[in-house]
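Hi there,

I know you've been waiting on this one. I reran it after we fixed the sequence typo, so this is the corrected version. Both the input and the resulting structure follow.
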Amino acid sequence: MLNTLIGDAGHLSVIVAFVAATVAAYSYFKAAQGRSLGDTDAGWLRLGRGAFLVHSLAVVAVIVCLFGIIHGHRYEYYYAWSHSSNHLPVYYMISCFWEGQEGSFLLWIFWHVCIGLVLMRYGRRWEAPVMAIFAGVQLFLTSMILGVVLGNLKIGSSPFILLRDFMPDLPVWKTNPGFVPKDGTGLNALLQNYWMVIHPPTLFLGFALTLVPFAYAVAGLWKGEYTKWVRPAMRWTLWGGMILGVGIVMGAYWAYETLNFGGYWNWDPVENAVYIPWLVLVASLHGLVLWQRSRTALRTSFVLVIATFLLILYATFLTRSGVLGNASVHSFTDLGLSGQLIIYLAAFVVLSIGLLVWRWKHIPVSEKELTTYNPELWVFVGATVLCLGAFQVLFTTSIPVYNAFLGFIGIKSNLALPADQIAHYTKFQLWMGVGVAFFSGLAQVMWWQKNDKSSLTNTLTVPGILTLLVAALVILLVQYYGHKMDLVYIVLLTTALFGVLANLSMVLTLVKRKVSLSGGGIAHIGIALMLLGILASAGYSNIISQNVSGLLYSREFDQTTNQDNVLLWRNDPAPMGKYDVRYTGQFWDVPGVPGYVDKQLLYRTADEYKTLARADIKRGDKVYYKAGDTVEINPENTYYRVEYKDRKSGDAFTLYPRAQVNEEMGGLLASPDIQKFADHDIYSHISAVPPVDKEKDWSEVKEHVLSVGDTIFLNDYFAVFRAVEPAHQTAGLGLKKGDLAIQGDFLVYGEKKQYHVHPVFVVRNRLIGRVPDEVEDLGLRLSFLNVDPQKSKFTFGVSTTQKDYIILKAVEKPFINLLWSGTLLMAVGFGMAIYKRRRETDGADVAPPATRQPQKSRKPQQVA
């Protein structure tokens, strides 16, 4: 039944949210206009607060309505029909919420609401100018989901549009205007992963947090308060750096667990679009630290803080305008919002850069001359390296934008993205990593002491010598195992080790002094470990699934696929590196049952989500389903059980890489399974499976007339005909009164195990039917053909087919845990820095003079 009430309520709430954001932005602007910081017009301030609260409630109402549509399977709405389906669990319905453009905009708006309410409560004298910027951003973002059409002008794309309005040309509307689909198209299979429940909210919270330091910086320029904005902006910048960084690595880990390109970062333009602003955000954090410590780099801080948010907006344009449609598989399609996105970006570029140019001469400039022994110099150089790395990625990623712009003004452009994007970006980014690792170690050591040639030499001697010794040992080991180390790998290894050891030496020194640990030092150790993990896992991945059979698997495969994969026939062991590997069958995910369930234990029914248990399904002594029970399954993915056994040690483990044949998404969608060890991972994924969209090619049926107890030989196997018995509902027969159904009971002896086979003979309304039974492991099918009751003879047919197989790729990823553990350590470092600033107030603007150095008798100043 068509239900438009919830959609109308949601659309009305969007309009209320847009109007309230407009009122809030104008009211906060009027409250602060022409007044000094902290002096606001009380009437306008109250109106601004009230309007933002109304905006917040309206946004929550929009979220409730949209999730209600998804959860209630209201497929009369296009958003629910195109992103969800009946059989999705609730946690994947949450993923459906932000799979579409409108839902992801709404998620971003929601985080701004949460942060805005915090700023209203604790912003104090900064509230009016900062919230004017905040509400202005909300105005633009809410317009993206407004879905209002004024003549030929469309403002936003509504998530509450009806299916019949989105697809008005479907013939069904003419015959049935109230038609509602019974099911939706479902959630993208690759997004049905727990990381997709937590990664997007984390990433969008990081996006939202970049607005706060931007708003403080713009408010500082507006009110002529060029220094006081730094302290409150610093806290929010730390939060943004931590959460956005963790969100990016969450996405990388999702790719590692879910996609089959063999790693965690593919330099896809959409990946780059979030990586670029994070680099600039971290650079801006170092600029703010420099100002707080020594009154330097304030102009740089303004530029970088503003650039971070503008790059977030630019990333939004890249991923949502459709300009990357041919360059990235991850970008959204254009919903007609390109013009709004350009206006949105242009408005804030003009506002912020215009203010910056206007106030540029008034921004204080340090007169302190930086020398080689000033740590500020090396912090500044490190921030510059980050910005250069961001610019290199930005320049190349934006090639489709250049082409689109030149085409718009009538100039034909032949610019193209690099053919090998991974090699292109890696060539430059490795050297950025070298700079980051080296300068993070050097600057951190110098930061906590008074520096001259003698003191610096003494401090760097121990970590420097240890770095060279460890690097030399690693290089020798790499060469001993037959690998080559390029110059850039040697340099990155050495500088990353220096980053770890130099920061660690300073952290230990602070512990000895009983000084609070440096959050920056801990974060820098984490970054250096991440670089080591990237170097080891990406630079020295080892493909262990080399084709040593001499066979060409398929002429349709490229040369690499034929060389770097192993063919595994079902139940036949094959050598692979130091392992013997055996593919042992196909499995399904059954909700409520631990692990996966063998497909041979389940009989498919007309409903693809329901099966019948052919035998008891149990784990240990616990029976989850008895034979004949209806078992619900998740049929989208098939899990292929692969056993690994180390020939030398005898250690064994089992992996379940999954695959799904989905022609709409390009054929085989494969996700890896990973065996994790302390020093490496074994990363395995399916490269090919037998065609599932066509019937198996069975041999001609060979008939056998048997009596109970007879034995027949089937190629390399034999089977014993044990009995004839009444057939059970496990075959999905739907037996009714008057029907006759019997089944043969065979025990087939395979190479490794025995199989119970039950072909069925049915008589219904004087018509004979036969339901064959198949042993997929052996490629056998038995059919119950006839019964001779007078002679107690039974005729069975046996046919064979090619055994099941998979083509598997397996890669060894050395020391990849350094990447994940380094990420955690980086987050801990950010958290420590945030904790140290919890008591700072935005009213304080005290910083040591430029010439001040920490004295032995007093505790050093805490830095990020």
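Quick highlight: Residues 559-690 form one domain.

Best,
R. S.
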